[in-house]
Design a protein that fits this description.
three-stranded antiparallel beta sheet, about 290 residues, Jelly Rolls, binds 2-oxoglutaric acid, alpha+beta, 9 helices, about 20% strand, eight-stranded antiparallel beta sheet, Phytanoyl-CoA dioxygenase family protein
Length: about 290
């Protein structure tokens, strides 16, 4: 039988994570932490929601043309043949520029994203450096937040419900955070993000072997990754947690706890893009 881990509460700690591997806002007495005392009223509200509900929503002052600027930058990178990682969720593999441009030209329904392209694309680097994003990272992750992964989604991922924590091989997996920024309006038609409130506390953890909560094999096609996704589906049904589809306007930011289950709804209108910036941020030191 799988080890049972109540995420975010003592049993989770007992199931594999030491308190220092948790986010500071999940540790006993966290509201006495100086970081809570010095947080702004908006940050406090976010921290309380993250602790209780596993997510919150806020808004950034975002330039309207940000997504278009990134698109212009990747088209330029494609023309120059710059090496950038392009992952396609719908094909389940990586693409090169030639294949991507060909499929886009043929209007093939294709979900894809650029991974860690902020070093090649200045427009993307500027988005990551957005002062309000950086302020949230500093508040939520603490000193030296580390950007583990930066994804620029062109269309929705249609990802099955999952939490990000089991995929993050960092010493403090509980300190992982997902920052999901809408670069254009997102809704059910273009494959919105969906969130399962309270799942960070109410779902039992997946035993990836020896009581570990981290997947040894994160390849989406691996038997273990599939077993994890099946486990999440069964747990959501057991706990009767309904998804909340995030209908977002450009500039809205959703912050997700490491253990909060989320995914992407099926795309019904493939003519639309659903451009978003998704940052996985964590702490390397415990
Ligand atoms: O944007 C989406 O559709 C889902 C993103 C997601 O699940 C992730 O990046 O972990």
């Amino acid at each position: 039988m799988n080890a049972v881990a109540e995420i975010g509460a003592q049993p989770w700690v007992g199931a594999g994570l030491r308190p220092e591997q948790l986010a500071w806002y999940d540790r006993p007495g966290w509201q006495s932490d100086p970081r809570f005392a010095t947080a702004t009223a908006e940050q406090r509200a976010g921290l309380l929601a993250l602790h209780e509900q596993g997510w919150f929503k806020t808004r950034l002052n975002l330039l309207q043309h940000s997504a278009d600027a990134v698109d212009a930058a990747w088209r330029e990178a494609a023309a120059q043949g710059l090496s950038v990682q392009i992952d396609s969720d719908s094909l389940g593999r990586s693409l090169d520029w030639a294949e991507l441009l060909e499929l886009e030209a043929q209007r093939v329904p294709l979900s894809w994203r650029l991974v860690n392209a902020q070093q090649q694309l200045l427009a993307l680097a500027e988005l990551v450096a957005h002062p309000q994003l950086q302020a949230w990272m500093a508040c939520l992750v603490g000193a030296e937040p580390q950007l583990l992964k930066c994804s620029y989604f062109y269309r929705g991922s249609q990802a099955r419900p999952h939490a990000d924590m089991p995929y993050a091989p960092i010493p403090a997996p509980g300190a992982l955070l997902t920052l999901w920024l809408a670069l254009e309006d997102a809704d059910a038609g273009n494959g919105a993000l969906t969130v399962f409130p309270g799942s960070h506390r109410r779902l039992r953890g997946f035993d990836a072997g020896g009581g570990s909560l981290l997947l040894a094999d994160t390849d989406p096609d691996s038997a273990q990754a599939r077993a994890y996704l099946d486990h999440v589906e069964a747990e959501l049904a057991r706990a009767a947690i309904a998804p909340v589809i995030q209908t977002l306007r450009a500039g809205q930011l959703v912050v997700l706890h490491a253990a909060t289950v989320h995914g992407g709804v099926p795309i019904t209108d493939w003519q639309r893009t659903r451009r978003s910036l998704v940052l996985h941020v964590g702490r390397q030191t415990v």
